[in-house]
Structures are given as structure tokens and as C-alpha cells.
Structure prediction request, 229 residues.
Amino acid sequence: AQSVTQPDIHITVSEGASLELRCNYSYGATPYLFWYVQSPGQGLQLLLKYFSGDTLVQGIKGFEAEFKRSQSSFNLRKPSVHWSDAAEYFCAVGGMEYGNKLVFGAGTILRVKS
Amino acid sequence: GAVVSQHPSWVICKSGTSVKIECRSLDFQATTMFWYRQFPKQSLMLMATSNEGSKATYEQGVEKDKFLINHASLTLSTLTVTSAHPEDSSFYICSAGVGTSYEQYFGPGTRLTVT
Prediction:
């Protein structure tokens, strides 16, 4: 079955430090890849997406992600984390191989130390 | 653009009653709407997919008679939790999709508490 793996349940970084959140997907020759952020009690906000083209995509709030087909990965990065980035981050994969639905990873909770 | 609203944002109801949650796409027409359920500290679980004017397609294990979904127009879908029980307490999130872009726009969620 199609699956999305976010291996880190929690990550804690210091404010100003760099961040990388990992995401691997199990299936799909042409996946559509997304990163969403969720603050407590809120819905999901799209940070960035990859459909095709340049494998390094820029998103909102200073985030970027790189698609690596050989590693089936779509890791999210930010060079300098701000305290307001503390939230839960979800990687999602869609596309025809996923039945036109989005399959979500388990999420990574980001804590930011001041 | 691409704003999705949900109403109510939170609701408390008594066991045995029914609750209706509305999901609206405010500035676009949604060909498909999705309903998710999210338990505390867990990811989103897709409950069903609905297309305007068609019956919803439910995921395996989701009770169709308990979670009634209506997608009467291109901007409105409703989820009715019938005969709610405490185990139905959860965070329900809807999303809307346009065409075959695979991108979904999410609502802010509805917190349901059944007492």
C-alpha cells in the first residue's frame, strides 16, 4: 500500500538554527508532493508543493523542499528557524497512483528553543 | 484565494443526537470535497470523498450510515454525524479540490465533543 513516512515524531531546534524535516514516500513514478503546517486546533496550511520541473521548490515562510527521486524523498528545510515556526508539519503525497487522494505522513512536531 | 470555511468551529452535543458540519469553498468552485478525521497527536485520516451531485465514496472502515455526507453544490458539502457517541469526539477537517490538480485546500477544522 502507498505510504508516507516521516521518521521524526518530534524535533527540537534552537531559534536561528537550521531545520530539516524528512519525508519518504513508498510508491509513485510521478508523485505530487506537498508539505503542510498545522498549528494547534487549526486546519492545514500549504507550505509548498512539487508537481514537476525544478526539484528544489520554494514555499512560504522561508521554507524550501527538495525532491530526490532516487531516494523517494521530499525533505523540508529552513535555514533559520523562528519561534513562530513551532507547529506540526505534515508531508503528503498525491497523484494517480494514490487514487487522486492525498496520503499523509504521521507528522513531525517542531519545538523551537529560545 | 482558495479559502475554505467550516462551521461550526467547535460543537458540544449530547450522546444520541446528530450534528451537522458545513464546509464551504468561499472563492472557488470545488469539484471534489474531502472529509478527514484527526485524533489527538495523530495524522489526518481520510473518511470520504464527495463530488458535487454524486454519492460520497467512503474509505474502508468508515460507517456510511453514521457519517452522512452531502455535496449539494460546488461550494458546499456537509457532514452529519448521526446518533453521536463519545467515541465520535474528534477534530473533523474538510478540504476542497479543483479539477485534477491533486491540490487540496483545507478548512480550519471543527472540534466535536460528544458528552
